[in-house]
Amino acid sequence: MEGDIIFMNIDPGYNIALHALEELDKKGRLEVLNQQRSWLEAIQSNVDGDNNIFTFGGENARPDEGASAFGETASAVFRMVMLRAVEINEDWWPELRKNTMKRNKKALRFQVLTSSPFKLLDEKNDNKDTARRCWRKYDHAFPLSLIESEMLENHGNNVNFHNKMLIFRNNFSEVIEIITDANATMEPLGWNAGEFDSYVQVECIRKEIKLGEEDGESFKKLKELIPRDEQKKNKQRGRGKVLDLLENVKMDNLSDQVKKSSMKVTNN
Question: Does residue 205 share a domain with residue 90?
């Protein structure tokens, strides 16, 4: 990940990056090299035994307890699906609770949609610290507090979560899109009250940015976001060093930004 520049849709400059990609696409300068996805049809809890695996917070949990327990598990499982989608070595994944890891990992699915798979990290040069920097960045989009609050506030309604992570590398000659789409509903009534119906998919698309006669205005603005001396430093940094565009964002404002960009509620 040497010199990688990462944008989440809660980052300053994200819209410029998105417009630059739209501009490049219209000019025919984007070519898909790899495309793959990972998905999970139902997030399962950490309860012991094989009963109530879609119930969170313990037996007879209140809605707030269930939402809190689901938020904690879902945030970790979203990350797991992402790590599988980009083919990061499983030995580098963060630890999860025993039953959570066993059940959800077993149910995880993976599909390569092009001729060959793609690995985000180079296992010869990268390591667990590199992987940690990647998934910590991703975690900003789906903190457990966001998932918990949205599930509780929309008890009984379907909540959709979406995020697109953009990674520019090799001096803007390549872009990797990591697209997360998930939904969840906390059942309010009946025999399955307190259960969570959920689905999460993460798609990874790697594209070449072809050379053109002249860059468009949005692509120029994107490059101008990164000072030339910073680009030079990125080339000189060790593997895994990335430009974190969130470093100047106040963390106490982060949840509001995430909420506006990542969540949509639909009535059942």
Answer: yes
Sign of the C-alpha dihedral computed for residues 89, 92, 98 and 100 taken in this order: negative
DSSP one-letter code for 127: -
Tens-place pLDDT, residues 52-106: 789 888 777 888 999 999 999 999 999 999 999 999 998 888 888 888 899 999 9
pLDDT tens readout for residues 17-36: 999 999 999 999 999 999 99
Count the domains in the chain: 2
Same domain, 151 and 54: yes
Q: Which amino acid is at 69?
A: A
Whether residue 132 lies inside any domain: the answer is yes
User: Is the alpha carbon torsion for 146, 151, 157, 158 positive or negative?
Assistant: positive
| pLDDT, tens digit, 9 for 90 and up, residues 212-225 | 989 999 999 999 98
DSSP state of 194: T
Residue 218 tokens read as: 């949005």
128-187 pLDDT per residue, tens:
888 888 888 899 999 999 999 999 999 889 999 999 999 999 899 999 999 999 999 998
